[in-house]
Amino acid sequence: MSGLKIQPTTRPSLLVRLKNARDHEAWTDFHSVYEPVIYAMCRRRGFQDADAREIVQEVLISVSRSIALFQIDQDGTFRGWLGRITRNATIDRLRKSASRRETIDAVGVANHLDLVAVDEAASAEFDTDRRRQLFRWAAAEVRQRTGETNWIAFWRSSIDGHPIADVAKELCIEEGAVYVARCRIIKRIRELVDDRSNE
After folding, report:
1. Any idea where the RNA polymerase sigma-70 region domain is (predicted)?
2. Which residues are paired to 146 by β-bridges?
3. CA–CA gap between residue 116 and residue 158 (Å, rounded)
4. Cα distance between residue 142 and residue 22, in whole Å
5. How many other CB atoms are found less than 10 A from the CB of residue 122?
6. Tens digits of per-residue pLDDT, 97-141?
């Protein structure tokens, strides 16, 4: 199967690499996985697009300033730490916004702050969004290294759920080639996701 160009790579942990501010590839990976997750969390909290984008920038700046001090023993998992930074940034934004508006409904703000401060629910949401974005990121990474026919064979049979025989016929390839493309691409996506899941 010469069209499959996936090269197995062993990369150091993203967390370790982020501590080097000059590792642009690590920071690009971080942004592509976590920026949409942080944004989604802010939007679910009721922030408008512009406010959500500002909070995202605040969180990213906070991470870049404090990543060198992050320690798993003291701070827990990286995703938990990032979730706390995001949650705190949303709470800070709500408090600032409440203090700027004289006509704001204090009860409404208090209720909103209570919702944002619910630790377990916020953590679960953040983790779900992170896993979804991680799949999207890994799939995009793998697709760049995969021939288009193989990618279509994988996507149509695994994601869209079309029968192998139909996909093979559509692409004018053997059914065995569809199975091989699926297996290799799924394996590589899992490797990338697993590599990032321990952060």
Report:
1. 34-98
2. 4
3. 37
4. 25
5. 20
6. 766 554 444 445 554 555 454 455 556 677 778 788 888 888 998
Q: What is the pLDDT of residues 2-14, one digit of tens each?
A: 444 333 333 447 7
Please state, rounded to an integer, the average pLDDT across all residues of the chain.
78
Structural domains of the chain, with CATH: 14-144 (no CATH), 147-199 (1.10.10)
Largest alpha-carbon pair distance within the chain? Answer: 69
Q: Where are the beta strands (DSSP E) in the chain?
A: none
CB atoms within 10 A of CB 156: 20
Question: Cα(53)–Cα(70) distance, rounded to whole angstroms?
Answer: 24
Q: Is 142 helix (H, G, I), strand (E, B) or coil?
A: helix
Reported as half-sphere exposure (CB side, CA atoms, 13 A), residue 31 has a value of 11
d(CA 191, CA 44) in angstroms, rounded, equals 30
Q: Are 116 and 122 in contact (CB under 8 A)?
A: yes
Contact 133, 91 (CB under 8 A): no
Neighbours of 144 (CB within 10 A): 10
Answer yes or no: are the C-beta atoms of 42 and 51 closer than 8 Å.
yes
